[in-house]
Amino acid sequence: MRANELVHLEQLNEEAYGRVVCYPRYSVEELRKRLKELRKLGVTAIEFSGKKVVSGLPALGKGCVGIVVTAYRRNEKVAMKIRRVDADRTRMQHEAEMLKKANTVSVGPCLLDVSDNFLIMKFIEGMLFPEWIHTLSGRGTKFRVQRVLRNVLEQSWRLDELGLDHGELSRAPKHIIADADGKPWIVDFESASVNRKVSNVTSTCHYLFIGSPIAKAIQTELGQLDRAKLIQALRNYKQNRTRESFETILKVCLLQTS
User: Fold this and answer.
1) Which of 30, 153, 156, 257 has a CA that sits 20 to 30 A from residue 163's CA?
2) What angle do CA 133, 174, 43 make, to 5 degrees?
3) CB 70 within 8 A of CB 123
4) Per-residue pLDDT for 258 more than 60?
5) For the segment 181-239, what is each residue's pLDDT rounded down to a tens digit?
6) Model confidence over 114-172: pLDDT tens digits?
7) pTM above 0.70, yes or no
8) Is 62 within 8 Å of 104 (Cβ atoms)?
9) HSE-up of 243 (CA within 13 Å, CB side)?
10) How far, in Å, CA of 54 to CA of 174, rounded?
11) Residues 30-56: pLDDT tens digits?
12) Quick check: do 5-122 and 126-252 share a fold?
C-alpha cells in the first residue's frame, strides 16, 4: 500500500488513482465522466489516507455502495463518498436526501453537495467508537463514556421522532465516530429510510448494551446494568414511543443525569 498522498484533480486521470475513483471496474470512459463531475462539484484534490485499502491505496472507508476518501473542495477539507461502479444503485441522491433530513435534527455530518457518483460531507476528525472507548483511561472516564452514550441515544431518539430509520445501528462499529472533543457522530445513511418502522433507539441499545463485544467494555466503565430491565424498557418503548419511555431506557442504562 502506498503512503498517504495528496493527488490534484489533473493527476487523477492516471490509472492507479482511477481504479479507486472507478472502483472496482476501471475504464477510461467512466473515469473521464467522473472527473467532469468532480470539476462541477469544485473538488480540487483527493487525499488517499485512512486504514482501509482500495486498489492498493488507503481510504477512509469501503462499503457495498461506496468508497469514502478525504477530498478538498474550494480549499475546504471534506469527506467524499464515491459510488462504486457495481453498486446496487445508479445515483447517490437517496443517501443525500436521507442525510439532509437527518441534518434537520442535528444528526450526521453536514451534507455539502451531491452528484450522481459523489456525495460530499463535512469531514469529521475522529475515530470509530470501539477504538475511542479503548483509548480511554484515568479519572473522568466514566463521565466521558456516559456523556457520549447519552448523546448517541439522544441522536437516535431524534431520528425516531423524525421518522427516519438509519437501518444499520444494530451493528454500529462503523457507524458511530467520536471526534477530538468526544462528540459522537452517526454516519453512513446509505441504508436509511422513511418508509419503514423506526428502530434507531432500540437498535443502538442492542449494539451498545446487549449484543456486541463493545457492551462488555461499556459495562466495565459504567457498571453492570440490569439486562432484563433494559429489554423490558425497550419493549415498552416500541409499544409506546414517548419521551417518558425513552427516559426510562436512559435510567436503566445508567445514563440518567437527574
Assistant:
1) 257
2) 115
3) yes
4) no
5) 889 999 999 999 999 999 999 999 999 999 788 898 898 888 888 999 999 999 999 99
6) 999 999 999 999 999 999 988 876 567 888 899 999 999 999 999 999 999 999 998 88
7) yes
8) no
9) 1
10) 17
11) 999 999 999 999 999 999 999 999 999
12) no
H or E segment at 185? strand 184-186
Cα gap 93→111, rounded to integer Å: 11
Report the distance separating Cα 142 and Cα 220, nearest Å: 9
Which among 53, 55, 58 has a CA at the least distance from the CA of 70? Answer: 58
Report the CATH fold assignment for 126-252.
Transferase(Phosphotransferase); domain 1 (1.10.510)
Domain ranges of the chain: 5-122, 126-252
Radius of gyration of the chain (CA): 20
CATH architecture of the region 5-122 = 2-Layer Sandwich (3.30)
Instruction: For residue 8, list its beta bridge partners.
Output: 45
Widest pairwise Cα distance in the chain: 60
Is residue 80 within 8 Å of 57, Cβ to Cβ?
no
d(CA 209, CA 201): 12
* Unique residue bearing C-alpha cell 418502522: 197
